[in-house]
């Protein structure tokens, strides 16, 4: 009996180990919203959120992308297909703080009459607070540029076929899953190029890997100067949290946001887009996700733009903010193509904010109560005055009969 139990326990242990190994093999890579995120062998990485600011003026497109990741990968490669040759530099996370503030819900006041806790005479505040609102070049791959930008080793590639790109990644220590490689074919057919970024938080400019990359480009040095000071959200040597943004610039006669590689994602995707363009913009279709939700749309005058938004916008623009979720990424059918909306009508999210009703800056309840008390006082005084007059008036006596002589 004991031998039978021991056999069962051993079998269970073997099955558990096999299951753990299966999970490790089945989770080799994830695709993020606009490019594949590929970790080194036997490590895992996933993308929690992808947020991008997109500037398009009709002929040039800029994408500032920030990815929030999780997993146990110390290194990863990220692939971004682009329609024309791209320049790459570091972005600044503060840009997204400015955009979030611009598009935050606005309070819509809902007045109340009687004072509440926090109002006079119970306190000093008015209303409720707002809510927390180079490795060797492989066959078929042309390395058109390579730079070291802070913690990023950036290679700009032109590939003749998906297999060549896969071989280049393999030679650099990364394995491109077949399901991701299959999604590259349409880009090859259209002669698109790629930006391949190696994320290695533990690597510094003096390392051998950095030596292959040459210097930094477009104002971002090896320490990340010109960006966020080279800040990279890592847990020890593990890629984790919000990564420092990358800023891509390329020619494009239409506003396109590459999404096809997300078809290979193994977990739900979340995409946030801030679009700066001459007009309010909308997606042509949902490309397999839920209908994009417009969270903000309005014209931004240059004078009203914060510093980093002003640098990106370079003039008056319309800002459109979109949120979209992809519960089943395997249903993604292509790239987002954005077009001018039917109108440039503004849209702002709002929330109710209770405020004490005031008349001329004075709480309405004090005016009403004070007026009522004054009226009562006037009535009481009038009654008292009338009563006092009655007391001071002598009584009237009947006429006496005439006296007889």
TrEMBL record:
Residues 212-230 have a biased composition (Gly residues). Residues 203-233 are annotated as: Disordered. Residues 1-26 form the signal peptide. InterPro entries: DUF2330. The chain crosses the membrane at residues 362-385. Keywords: Membrane, Signal, Transmembrane, Transmembrane helix. This is DUF2330 domain-containing protein. It comes from Streptomyces reniochalinae.
């Amino acid at each position: 009996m004991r031998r039978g139990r021991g056999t069962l326990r051993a079998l269970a242990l073997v099955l558990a180990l096999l299951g753990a190994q299966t999970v490790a093999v089945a989770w080799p890579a994830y695709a993020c919203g606009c490019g594949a995120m590929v970790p080194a062998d036997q490590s895992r990485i996933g993308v929690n959120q992808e947020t991008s600011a997109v500037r398009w003026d009709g002929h040039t497109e800029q994408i500032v992308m920030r990815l929030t990741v999780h997993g146990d990968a110390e290194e990863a490669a990220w692939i971004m297909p682009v329609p024309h040759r791209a320049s790459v530099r570091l972005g600044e996370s503060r840009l997204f703080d400015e955009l979030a503030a611009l598009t935050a819900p606005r309070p819509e006041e809902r007045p109340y009459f009687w004072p509440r806790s926090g109002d006079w005479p119970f306190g000093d505040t008015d209303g409720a607070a707002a809510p927390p609102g180079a490795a060797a070049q492989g066959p078929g791959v042309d390395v058109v540029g390579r730079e070291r930008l802070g913690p990023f080793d950036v290679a700009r590639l032109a590939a003749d076929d998906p297999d060549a790109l896969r071989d280049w990644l393999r030679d650099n220590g990364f394995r491109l899953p077949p399901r991701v490689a299959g999604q590259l074919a349409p880009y090859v057919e259209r002669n698109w190029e790629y930006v391949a970024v190696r994320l290695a938080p533990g690597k510094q400019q003096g390392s051998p890997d950095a030596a292959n990359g040459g210097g930094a480009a477009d104002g971002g040095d090896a320490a990340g100067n010109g960006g966020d000071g080279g800040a990279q959200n890592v847990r020890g040597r593990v890629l984790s949290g919000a990564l420092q943004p990358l800023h891509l610039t390329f020619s494009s006669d239409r506003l396109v946001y590459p999404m096809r590689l997300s078809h290979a994602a193994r977990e739900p995707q979340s995409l946030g887009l801030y679009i700066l363009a001459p007009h309010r913009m909308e997606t042509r279709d949902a490309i397999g996700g839920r209908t994009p939700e417009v969270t903000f749309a309005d014209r931004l005058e240059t004078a009203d733009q914060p510093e980093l938004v002003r640098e990106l916008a370079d003039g008056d623009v319309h800002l459109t903010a979109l949120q979209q979720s992809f519960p089943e990424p395997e249903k993604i059918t292509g790239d987002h193509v954005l077009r001018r909306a039917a109108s440039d009508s503004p849209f702002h999210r709002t929330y109710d904010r209770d405020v004490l009703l005031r008349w001329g800056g004075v709480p309405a309840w004090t005016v009403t109560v004070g007026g009522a008390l004054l009226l009562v006082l006037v009535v009481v005084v009038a009654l008292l005055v009338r009563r006092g007059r009655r007391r001071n008036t002598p009584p009237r006596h009947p006429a006496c009969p005439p006296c007889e002589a």
